[in-house]
Fold this protein.
Amino acid sequence: MRIDIITVLPELLKSPFDASILKRAIEAGLVEVHFHNLRDYTKGSYKAVDDTQFGGGAGMVMLIEPIDKCITKLQSERNYDEIIYMTPDGERLNQSIANQTSLKENIIILCGHYKGVDQRVRDKFITREISIGDYVLSGGELGAAVICDSVIRLIPGVLGNETSALTDSFQDNLLAPPIYTRPREYDGMKVPEVLFSGNFAEIEKWREEQAYQRTLERRPDLLED
């Protein structure tokens, strides 16, 4: 998989990809992540990527021309399965979207900034618009990093145990059940005995029941689906 991220702040993005699972995935050649500074596609010494709104109003708008130049250049080099725009009014990121995206070969993520991008960018290029929550950030960079993390960990070979991702919260519209490790008892708190039974059918049944109960208590909206 190849991910190209278009941003006005590439330095804000590099840190999440330089540690832990994402770093190992990149070093292993399981994914390529490339950052493209939008200011490299501008004219003039000021490297402006935004301007005032037509019709007036507060907030600057990202120009269409540098975005067009950057995306067009990338598209001339390879085909892209998805061009994603990070925006508060996009569909909210969930596990299903992460699963779908992990099957793509090449994607572009455009990070919004200021008041957002010229609508013509969205009309001409964008195939999917995604939000990571009902709030506004200073830019789309942190959201892009969240999407990349949620997607890259699903690529075969990235996690040490590939079945781990299949038992995460939301994979079956359920939250994950409680989990335990050593010691067996701590400060009077004991691990449920069923986990030591060796009866894997019973253990799986217990986990399913716990996952359902936790979802019912914390996220009943998931059960409506």
Q: What stands out?
A: The CA atoms of residues 105 and 159 lie 19 Å apart.
